[in-house]
Structure formats: structure tokens, C-alpha cells
Amino acid sequence: MNVDATLHRALTNLARRQAPRGSWPSDYGGPMFLLPMWVALAYVTKRLPSEARTARVLTYFTNVQRPDGSIGLHAESTSGSMFTSTLTYVAMRLLGLPASDERLTRLLTWIHANGGALGAASWGKFTLCLLGLYDWKGIVPLLPELWLLPAEAPMNPGRLWCHARMVYLPMAWLYGTKSTAPDDPLLRAIRHELYQGRYADVRWEAQRDVVAKADSYRPATAALKGVNLAQVGLEKLPTLLRKRALDECLKLIRHEDAATHDLDIGPVNAVLNMFVHHFRGAAGREDFERGWPKFDDAYLWDGHDGLKMQGYNNAELWDTAFAIQALTAAEKSGALTTEETSSVLGKAYDFLRANQILEDVPEAARHYRHASRGGWPFSNREHGWPITDCTAEGLKCALALEGRFASKIPDALLHDSVRLILSWQNEDGGWGTYEKQRGGTWLEALNPSQVFGDIMIDTSFVECSSACVQALVKAKERFGRTFDLDEAIGRGVAFIRSQQRDDGSFEGSWAVCFTYGTWFAISALRAAGARKDDSAVRRAVAFLLGKQRADGSWSEAGDTCRERRWLEGTEGHVAQTSWALSALVRGGCEDQAALDRAAQWLCARQEADGSWAREPLVGVFNRTCLINYDCYRHYFPVWALAEWKQRGHLTTSVGSP
Ligand code: LAN
Q1: What is the dihedral of CA 402, 407, 411, 416, to 10 degrees?
Q2: With a 6 A CB cut-off, is 541 part of the ligand 1 pocket?
Q3: Looking at 309, 342, 374, which one is the last position of a domain?
Q4: Tell me: the pLDDT tens digits for 317-330?
Q5: Looking at the domain assignment, is residue 652 inside a domain?
Q6: Which of 228, 280, 207 is nearest to 250 (CA)?
Q7: 628 close to ligand 1 (CB < 6 Angstrom)
Q8: 425 ligand 1 Cβ < 6 A
Q9: Whether 390 and 428 share a structural domain
Q10: Rounded Cα–Cα distance for residues 75 and 585 (Å)
Q11: Do both 409 and 279 map to the same domain?
Q12: What is the pLDDT of residues 54-79, one digit of tens each?
């Protein structure tokens, strides 16, 4: 094993993949409910893709169809989902495939054998309603009037996690108007196929709570059933407030469009907002025309397995921040020189600078928005929603590269960034994703999505908290007494400690799973000054050591997050092995042989061109849905190997890998 050569090849690979703007564009697919929603929109608005692109979309659906004929919630699901199977069936039909196509007959057979389309999860039913393939009476009301509640009301939707909030906002408008596409022969045919000719006999009111076993990850609680009943009752009252409520929703929708340059926070509200503008008719035309091209520009990705819709407009800031840290670690280790890295890092720094957010959104509080100035987003400035850990990783990079390149981020903006991080800290000491926690955890009992866990409120996470703690530690070194950061750091560390499980591990929420969470936790504790004999650090290290495989790697299966317990994967995983190795090095692990085996395994897995091969999906959200962080395999091994090397062992060959 020659780790220096590995790192040199990896640098060549990163340089080759870097875009001129300094970032690493990559495939951010995985979730399977997005593309069919976009196809539905394209059909309703008569903007179906060209023949060539349609073929690429069909290729994608074909590639992810499971052996049993179904489609999963995400591209690598181990079981079928009624939600995505139904929507995909509809989408493939809307794209012109005949019902007799073998892929469709297998899909429909699975749908019928598993309870039928009436059991699709709520977002599926909602999308079917827009197409006239399900009756609005069969879904639980989503009252737009809720948006008129005073800001202090516990049920004000402004308290929701921003992603749930921004999805349920256009849903409320569309529900409130019962917007439905005009019927046509193809839709009639699909209706006939989905319901086996029995559509006219469906008792819609009885379908509201019906959900297929396949889609029931979070079954309705008694509290949700109560709220739903109340909403059904309220929907029957004369709707004096409806017009005002719809106006309020529209105002918030248009604000979101403007604040994000029509990208919208994510793919779901990007599609739903466009449905709203379409159904507004002439009044919505301009908004629609501005927004429609964003799908092509940002959300649709033609990848190795076909054309898909991505989970975000891109992941560029996030990837750039990690690539920077991996390469600066490789410099510190002595494997790469600053001359060798300066071209890649210079461009990456430009990207970082060009994508820091400079302004708050207009009338932020009126539109339920937190401050933004000084933050970093996950994707780019155009998108504009700052995120806690993206800001923290961005700030860490800004400080690490400060003074190296001609252009500079002004101190004032770095100060804003520190202040923003402080403003996001929760009462429990931790950090959530985009905002300070606004609602009680009890709101999760009202999660109506069925297929996703923990979508209702933005609570503290180990990963986000760790990134913020690490950034504050660096900010303290850099800014000295300008800020008093000790208390915030101390509370952050206490939160992270409180999350340790009995087995010593930390659960990750945004990647699979315990290797990721434990890496973040150890990193923060050590950065904040915990010694390697600190008992939390020691227990975390022991946990990871206990999970190492005979070949030196680590591997957690994708369902780990869903089941919330360690599930061994089939093959060693490069990203997970990198997190574990880095965590062990940072945690001061004494078992040098274990570290060496991990490093050796990572080196041996590198391809001749300096890359690492595609591997099972490792990103996750809301417990159940995996998503592709395609660049993780390109920089996390660099980072881990650099740290392993810096620890000072085995800089030259130890046998052949
Ligand atoms: C993301 C992408 C980025 C990600 C990190 C910054 C990596 C993480 O550390 C914090 C959480 C965050 C911001 C995140 C949350 C959930 C998102 C927004 C996504 C995984 C991208 C897509 C997903 C979104 C919820 C998908 C739409 C589905 C819904 C249930 C609304």
C-alpha cells in the first residue's frame, strides 16, 4: 500500500471532475416519488418531454423496477411502495406506454396484489387527485384556513419543519380549490386500469385513512385521527374564510418562489407550486413560465441509469466543503503539497465565496423565515435557504483557506456566519437543520405522511450539532474575544453527549447511519477538547471497533435508518469505512492494526483513475428514504487516509493490498 500514490491519484480524479465554477456537480437521485410527480405536471400542463428524453425517463423507471414488479420508495428499496408504484404506473402511462407493456402489467399486478391504489400513501392520493384519478372526498382535508391562525397558535403551520411546511402550503391551496385536470380518454383508461373498472363504486369518505401495509411506516395516531375528523367537520362549514386563506397561501407561495429564484426549497414544492400557478389560469401564467425551466436547469438529471428527478437542485456547496477539508487534510499529512492542490482548492474557494448568502429574505418573519445573511446553503446562493451544518462546514472551510487566495471573504460576513449559527441553537443545546425548533415534539404525532418519519418539526440532530460545535471552536480560535462562544460550545457538546446510545454509538439521521453519526459525535467532542480517555469517546471508539469487518471495512445496510438498529451490509462500504476510520483516528484509537487494515482496504478499493466505484446509496432523510451522495466516494476516503497517515504510521508499503 502506498497511501501517497493513492492520494495523488485521488487528487487527479477530483481535479478532473471539478466544474469550472469550482464545485462537483453530481447525481442527487434516489427518491422515487419525485419524477412521477413531475411527469404528472408535464402532462397536465401539456409539456411532456421530447421522445428522446421520454425514452431516458422510461429507462430510469425500468432500471429501478424491482424483481417483484413494484417500485420502492427509493431506488434501492428492499420492498415495494404503493405510493411510488401507483404514481410510476400512472407516469409511464402518461408518457405513452400502452397498458399491455410487460413492465406495466407486472407493476399493476403488484399494485392489485398488495391492496390497490386506494392504499397509496397520502402524497400519492393527493397527486392522483390533481389528475382526477382519485376523488378529493377520499383524502383528509388540508385546510388552507390553518394558515390564518395567529402566529402564536400551536397548530400554526409556520411551526412545521420547513420542508413539511413548504409541501403542505401548496397542498392547502390545491386542496382548498379542489384543483383537478380536465378528464380525457387516457386518464379514463388509467382510472379503469387502476381500480379494475370499479372507480364509480368507491366509497370515497371511507378511503381517507386507508393505507396499504407497504406504505404504513408511521400509522395514524389517535391524535391524528382526531384532528382529521375535526378537519372533515370544519370542511363542511360554510367557508367564509376560504378566499382569504387561499390568498394568504398564494402570497406565501409566491414569496417562496421569489426568495429561491423559482427553485423552491425542494423538488416537491417545486412541482406543487407549479401546479398552483397552472390552476390559477391566466393570473398564474407568468409565475409558471418563470418556474418551469428550473426543472431542466436544476432538478432533472440524466444519469448512468436514466433520467431522474433529484432530491434538491444540487448538492454542490456541501460537496465542495467536504472536498476542501479532505484536500487540506491531505496537505497537512504531507502527502500532497499546496502547489499540487492550489488549482483545485482555489476554484473550490471561489465557489464557496460566490455562494455564501448575503441577505435575509424580504419581510422574513412575515413569511416564517429565519435570518439568512452569512449562511451557506446546501446547493447554491440562487437557492438561498441557509442550513445550520452547511453554514458550519462553509465557515470551517472559509477559515481553513483564509489568506491563501487573492480574493477574501470579508470579516463582517464571517461574523454574520457565526452569529447566524448562534441564532439557530436550540434550547436543548443542539442544532436542527434550517431553523430553530418552533413546535413541540408532540406535533410529530400528527405526521400525516405515513411513509416518512420525523417530518413535522426541526429538532436537534447529532450531525448538525457537531458541525456547528466544530465551526464555533474554529471561530473562537480566529476571532478571540469578538464573541463569547464558550457557553454555546458547552451546551452543544452536552446535547451531543446526551444522544449517545447504550452501546456507545450515535445514530445518524442524514446518512446511513451509526458510522456517520458516531464520526460526527467523536469529531465534535474532540474538537471541543474532550480527551481520548473521555468515557463517551472511549465507548464510541469501542463501538466502531466492534463493527469492523474481517477485511478491515465497515458496512451498514440501507434499512438501518428505518429500523434504527445496526444491520450489517453485504460488502464493505467506502464512505462508511472512511467515516469509521476518521472517527477512530480522531478518537485516539490505540488499535493500530485495526486502523491499518481499514486504510489498506480503502487503498485497495481505489480504481486506476483515482476514483472509487459507485456503491449502495448512503444518504437518507426522514428515516425511510435513501438518496445518492455520489461524491462521498471521491473525497471521504481522501480525508480518512490523510488523517490516518498524519497519525504517523505506515507511510510506505506494508505488503501488497
Ligand atoms: C437534505 C439535503 C441536505 C441535508 C444535510 C445538510 C446533508 C443534512 O446534514 C441536514 C438535512 C439536509 C438539509 C436535508 C434534509 C431533507 C432533504 C431536504 C434533503 C435530504 C434533500 C431532500 C430532502 C427533502 C425532505 C425531500 C423531499 C421530501 C419531503 C419529505 C419533504
Answers
A1: -100
A2: no
A3: 309
A4: 999 999 999 999 99
A5: no
A6: 280
A7: no
A8: no
A9: yes
A10: 33
A11: no
A12: 999 999 999 999 999 999 999 999 99
